[in-house]
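Pipeline run #58 for the internal structure catalog. This entry was flagged by the ingest filter as a single-chain record with no existing model, so it goes straight to prediction. Upstream metadata was stripped on purpose; only the residue string is passed forward. Reviewer on rotation: M.T. Logging verbosity set to normal.
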Amino acid sequence: MEVKVDIPLYGPSVNIVKKSGDALCKALYDKFRCVTTIQGVEMETEMSNKYQKRTPTIPQEERGQFKLRSGVKVSVWKADLTNFPADAVVNAANEDLKHYGGLALALSKAGGPQIQMESDDHVKKYSKVNTGEAVVLSSGSLPCKMIIHAVGPDLSMSAFNFDPEKGRPALEKTIKSILNRVGENRLATVAIPAISSGLFNYPLRECANTIVSTIKAYYDNPHRLTPQEIFLVNNDEPTVQEMKRACNQIFSPQQHTLYNQATANHPGSTTKTESLSVQINNVVLTLKKGKIEAQNTDVIVNTASANFKLSTGAISSAILNKAGPEMQNEIKTAKGFNNIIHTKPYRLSCKAVYHTFCIEKSNGSKAEKILFDSVSECLWQAAAQNNSSIAFPAIGTGALGFSGAESARLMLDAVTKYALNCSKMLQVHFVIFPTDDRIFQAFESQMKNLQKRPQPNYGHDESQSSRAPAPQISLVCPSEESKHEAERWLKNRLSTDSHSVKINNNFISHFSDHDHLQLAILADGGLSIEEFFSQGHACLTVKGKPEENAVIAALQVEALLCKIHEDFIAEEEHQLKILTRMKVSGEKKTVDKKSQFFSERIQPFRPVGLWVVKVDKVENDALKEMFERKKKQLHQSSTKKMFQRIPAQFCEMISRIGFHAECAPPEDPKYGEGIYFSSSIRTALELWREKGEEYLYFVEAEVLLGNSAKGERGFILPPPDGKNPNILCDSVYGGSDVSVIFSGYQALPKYIITCKNSR
């Protein structure tokens, strides 16, 4: 359950946030998965990263939707690709990945210098990208997960002589390469422009035909990994129209096509409106006709009765009939979050179902508040659980007695308030039953007036709303523990009580020459930045006056370390995929507190005064495969249950790529420079000294110790096993309950255990 908190800013902290908002937001998200909104502070530079709001340069308009036989949805959009809410956007690149013009330049500018730097590094390491190929790199500060740089045919080059027929096979290959990357990276959505139609001179009509026909042919193969949706996105009217024409002609006439209001109002159009889209900050709100139980969004929202009988009510009955009786069984014992209960989707095409419990309109303002709060809570919970899309029915318009206009007003107000206070990208769908024309028209009317209507007044009087907001940072965190960690870190980082700021993080040892150059630039302002190692811990101090300058520089360093951390995880995941040819999921499932598994996990913690608040089971088949290979390599079948205490920010990393020495160096690495484990929680608290933390995090692991020798300070590998110096031991030990391994694949994370310190 997400937790929201507002943190007022005073004195020097206002100027610190003003000058380093980007770095602050990135660190809070990467470390604690907290989404940040900064209010009442006039930022010195435009906020440009994906953890803050960005304003699109043109309004986003959906022009049509098409459903392929494989289930993939293809939609046509007029929009700004630099701010489009998709998992990946495609860049029309050249072979050298030099982003000097057109779309490439626009994406590079919006995403920051990291995009060109990574492109240069890729070409230097792997050579140029040939025509027809596509590569995936990180997205810099764009609001997407990654960029797919794709090289289409350049018809101005002599090889093609302006002949689109000669260039067609190359463009087909380019589109196939893009779709291959989408499948390999398990992307749910991708935004593709009209590649080669701009600076590369491919005729627009032929370009649109080739792109659309290639997409259709590609996903006609039933064995393909399919995304949820492909967005065909361009920012100029002629290209958008050609893409829409190509989709109409090439996709089967039997395919259901939806048009938004922008299409319906276009000159010469007589098509009845079936879909309408509006963007509010990073939220794209779409009104459409359909059956709620048939939606492919990450979350489907149900409106259920207070007696928990899902067979009561038209919407709830439809969802139950498709999901199956297991949903009715689960809802009786499922956990509730305020007004919402979550269940599994069972036979539905979503990841989760959120069940709301509203009351009849006859209850007056109380009923309106519950409906409004229910929609709000669904949105915040969807964002906190990293969902990218959610579908709502017209809540309250059945037996509860709300009119279509009343339901639309309350639901739109909730979406608007959410969009103005959360910077996460989210696609919100209002799904109206196909025959409910009256309800559809009521929602359509409200949405048309949405941008003309002043921002709703949520309980503030006019004198308050007219004033400038007080400086504050608002956090939306995935849990109470993450909120606590983020608040503690933020308070520490914004403090100017000392002219010196110290950062302890073993990823400091991964600084490249380019990173050191950035540190030198930071130090040019009269600051002193010093790196040092102390008992196996990498540290960095930033000193200088005024003190706030040291804090601002330290936050830039924190953002740099987050980037190094991200790259490290990406590289390790890539290696895991190559070694195992398996998906690297790192999925964590919370263990039921009433289960035997939970009871077994908490027993070691009680004697030392730690209260277990949550146990997450780690499920990662790729790590398990590597662990089994290590068993065979070491000729070991037995393992030992051991523990490691880790900082909060590394919980996700360990679940995804396993154990690394950088994550949890002990207080004193006196048995070697490896990965430490303890067989007792009491010893773990000595190995990793607590520093007044309220929440502590432990990993329970299976560890392969094999042949073990006594550890000594400075070991970077185990000592030889016997007289042959080429045969090493498998691990070292320190006392009866401390072991050190030097290969992360010798340990398999099983559970991540969150404890509250009650001592």
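catalog note: Residues 288-399+407-448 form a domain with the Leucine Aminopeptidase, subunit E; domain 1 fold (CATH 3.40.220.10).
catalog note: The CA atoms of residues 264 and 271 lie 6 Å apart.
status: ready for reviewer M.T.
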